[in-house]
Amino acid sequence: MAATDPDCLFCKIVAGEIPSTVVASDEQTVTFMDINPATRGHALVVPRTHAADVLAIDPDDLAAVARAGRQQARRVMERLGADGVNLLNSCGADAWQTVFHFHLHVIPRYRDDPLRLPWDPAPGDPEEIAGAAGQLRGEA
Ligand code: 5GP
Ligand code: ZN
After folding, report:
1. Range of the domain at 90
2. Mutate which of 12, 98, 105 to test ligand 1's pocket (most atoms within 8 Å of Cβ)?
3. Which of 28, 58, 75, 111 has a Cα-to-Cα distance from 51 of 20 to 30 A?
């Protein structure tokens, strides 16, 4: 995979060809503000090297994004007065991914913000849970 994909929005943002509001950057990552913020301070951390998603990203870049994401999480707590933070990544269109350059959402959370869990936590069928675990362990 080339370091940059000429058709990729976030590669263009990393290269400065499309404007963005950058908060932080290092050798491997750039952290910039999301243009459709879920809450005040919502930002995205991306690797400088193009990779479509969590399955494709170089592990070392993934580690760099995780480090930068934690720094950004600290910033939103300390400087924006957030009460919490969600780190979110979507892999695949069916998992809500819309931009296919890996990114970690850093979403500040505030006590009274309007965000809600997208599922209703309810106990699962224990046999079904065990069945899924068996498949994940590679059993028949
Ligand atoms: P996804 O849906 O793939 O998890 O997240 C893509 C994110 O990129 C969305 O939250 C969307 O608001 C953000 N986004 C899309 N286009 C742009 C853009 O041109 N600039 C910035 N800063 N964010 C963008
Ligand atoms: Zn890209």
Report:
1. 9-136
2. 98
3. 75
Instruction: Determine the distance separating the centroid of ligand 2 and the alpha carbon of 62, expressed in angstroms.
Output: 14
Q: Where are the alpha helices (DSSP H) in the chain?
A: 9-15, 59-79, 126-136
pLDDT per residue as tens, the chain (140 positions): 568 999 999 999 999 999 999 999 999 999 999 999 999 999 999 999 999 999 999 999 999 999 999 999 999 999 999 999 999 999 999 999 999 999 999 999 999 999 999 999 999 999 999 999 999 999 97
Tell whether 89 is covered by a domain. Answer: yes
> Could you tell me the strand order of the sheet in which 22-25 lies?
22-25, 29-33, 43-47, 104-109, 84-88
Q: Give domain status of residue 1, yes or no.
A: no
- For residue 33, the domain's CATH number is 3.30.428.10
Quick check: CB of 96 below 6 Å from ligand 1? yes
d(CA 34, CA 139): 41
User: C-alpha dihedral over 51, 99, 43, 94, to 10 degrees?
Assistant: -100
In a domain, 2, yes or no: no
Residue 17 lies in a domain: yes
